[in-house]
Amino acid sequence: MPSPIIPHPRPIELVLGRLKGVRRSGNGWLARCPAHDDHAPSLSIAEGPDGRVLLRCHAGCETEAVVRALGLSMRDLFPAAQPEGLARRERGAGSGSGPRRKPRTTRYELRDPEGRLVAVHVREDGPHGKKLWWERPDGHRGLEGMRVTDLPLYAVDRIGAADRAIVVEGEKACEALLRLGLPAVGTVTGAASTPSDEALRPLLGRTVYLWADNDDPGKAHMERIARRLYALGHTDIRWVSWQEAPERGDAADFVATGATREDVERLLGQAARWKPPEVPDGSELLRDLERCFSRYVVLPPGTPLVLAAWTLCTWLVDVFEITPYLAITSPEKRCGKTTLLGLLGFVVREPLATANISEAALFRVVQELRPTLLIDEAQQLRDRSERSAALHDLLAAGYVRGQPVYRVAKAGDGFRVERYDAFGFKAIAMIGNLTDVLADRSIRVRMHRRAPHEAVARFRRIHVKAETSELRARLEAWALANEARVREAYLRVEPPAWLNDRASDNWAALWAVVEVADPSRLPELESAARALEGDPQEQELESVGVRLLGDIRRVFEEREADRLETQVLIEELCEDEAAPWGDWHGRRITPHALARLLRPFGIAPSKWREGGRIVRGYVREAFLDAFSRYLHFEPPHSPQAKGDAGSGDFEEPPHIRHQLPQGGESPHIPTVPPGDGPGIDQMDTPGADPKDSSWIGQEDSPWGDQEDSPPGEDGEGGASGVSASSTIDAICEGAQSRNDEGWTWDVSGTRLPRRVVPPGFGAACRPRTIPPDVAAEVQRIEDEAIALGWTPEELWQTAGWVSELGLAALMNQGDRVEEVTGEYIALRLRDGSRTRFYRRPARGRGDRGFS
């Protein structure tokens, strides 16, 4: 038989009589806790409705420890009416017989500013502790893929039009202030995360008071909220300080001390204005990051800048729609991949190494924290294990914002589909190459083993952490202050047109960051992009078909031919020892295999007569569309007509510029502003008639009054035997002698600037015409361009090799100028794409052109 329980007439009197420093506080008392060395009262005491004593030590002491320190037992806290329940509490909840205590459930409804129910946060306090979970408005558990950070602030719908808002951590602290009639909202993300910008927007336009929990995680939580508000343009931010707060004490604890609304108002009146961190210089930040990387690893030229820009991008992950991955590869081990990954872990935003993390935890952490994943030894992505497949799916889906990945999870006796947002930056290190799917989404950094003469500092994590702590703070401060500028630049800037669409998407984020941090280094970034994207190893990542197109284009350019016999083309392809065509499935590639590989690109062999026989082969013109779609544009040599190879008239996309001829005739640059003119460049054969020029027949043409010369029997000149080139030269010289001021011409009645066709232009460089709308567009920006250093020739020259033509000669109807700078003119083409027209190099000719 249990011994009879003789309770104290009033348990509260028994407890208060054994405490020290007791003072009244609201509806209860405060006293010094006997379970620890308490100099300031940190123990709250209250009496429940049924007479029980309620104890809470704000320093974290357990109730049982406090009771033991008082020399009492748990049963002494309860009146005599509940002896059996008390006995069970002492023996341990759930043990023995009798009814179990029913868990107490609290439901916190989260509504958007308009009052629509978004989610419910459920808290259950039972005999074994508390449980927390989320429910959707329909009552089902879970958030169905929604991130907790995207949920609205608790009670944001209840602050109405108040001109201020008190931000606290959690629903309980928020409710404590709301009961006092104060406009308060609570975060629901936990101290480790930060509410999204959309969740914080309802606070804009109000005086925001941040009341942090009195611990390091709580203060860091509110500091991040202050910085997000500042990034959104809000500056009226105050920091609430409760000097006597116990460890982890919050607003609810302040109210529990008996504080009234007046006490809270007094605390708010003492709140200090929050000051944003000092903004570092972007140029210096890039340089310091480059030095950090170069100090510990040997990197290819240009790569430190790429790594620095990518690191800055990770701090601005919410700005971008596409997050390029960083693929760190090497041919062998001990090339510095893990060291570089370790360095990134000290400077990127929210680094998370994937080693020793379960699949389920990885998906949840990526969704909630949006970390920068650091994946080492990624060779595992090639195997077929379940974990590798899951990680590969996460990487494939996390490249574009809003592209979720789905997983099946156990739910009771059944299963449910869970949706995860995997968006974010990721760095992947491995020996060899990534899968095609991931390689196409990555900026590739190829590492090599350090040579004996290359010295680097030894990587010691404890030292690197100390060295990079200040750098990390500067990165966060710069990103906070420049987020709006980077967002604007990301929408505006265009990487070079020579990058393919996917590569352009990958580099856009880096371009935007460098333009804001240090625009003078954009040419350096472009050079690095050329080095990384144009690496010969890149060919290994292309499909066989694209590799074949590239090799065929090279053969056409080297032979300067318009058409090639099939066997000749195969011979040329097989001469490249690095190409697979000489050992195609154990033998040289056959004509049938060649045709089969080209068929998906819409290219088929042709037939033509040559010297009395039928020849089967390929015409270069049939490849032009495929070249322009699948290969980077490179300035090719001008193809020359060969005997009976055809008429010699040849069309190319206007944004491809020809290299200067290897010898003989060289282009000239006019000394007087030329006229406008786009169109298709036509490369005529040496036998072309000068009367075919697009200027013949125009009233103001210098050739308009020339008499036709009867062609010679060989078809290559007039009766006098002079060539077309020399004939045009003579005509030009005659035109200049008749009119020292040059001559003018018009298009559809529009008078254009004067120009003189310089001597020496042959038929292969005949001039172009300009549609009126193109002329008007160039005239619109002419004054601005000349003020920035452009010459009239660079804007108007209409004759010469393509590399010498001006802007107007390369524009088409419907093209529009979007931006004029001292270095380039940005165009929006009629098909909606963008490109840039760059100024001539100082040498005055050659490589200038669209990029």
Q: What report would you give on this structure?
A:
The protein is α/β, with parallel strands linked by helices and 851 residues long. It is elongated and about 125 Å long. The strands form eight sheets. A five-stranded mixed sheet has the order 9-8-10-11-12. The chain has a five-stranded parallel sheet with strand order 14-15-18-13-19. A hairpin with a 2-residue loop joins strand 21 and strand 22. Helix 16 packs antiparallel against helix 17.
In short:
By secondary structure, the chain is α/β, with parallel strands linked by helices. The longest helix is centred in the middle third of the chain and has 32 residues, at 461-492.
Q: Which key features would you list for this structure?
A:
single chain; 851 residues; alpha/beta; five-stranded mixed sheet; 27 strands; 33% helix; disordered N terminus; disordered C terminus
The average pLDDT is: 76
Proportion of helical residues: 25-40%
Biggest beta sheet summary = 5 strands, mixed
List low-pLDDT spans.
Answer: 1-8, 81-98, 536-541, 633-765, 842-851
Percentage of residues in DSSP E strands: 15-25%
Please report the distance between the alpha carbons of the first and last residues: 95 Å
With strands numbered from the N-terminus, the spatial order across the biggest sheet is 9-8-10-11-12
From the alpha carbons, calculate the radius of gyration and give it in angstroms.
38 Å
Number of helices: 26
Q: What structural class should be given to the helix and strand makeup? A: alpha/beta
CA-based shape = elongated
The overall strand count is: 27
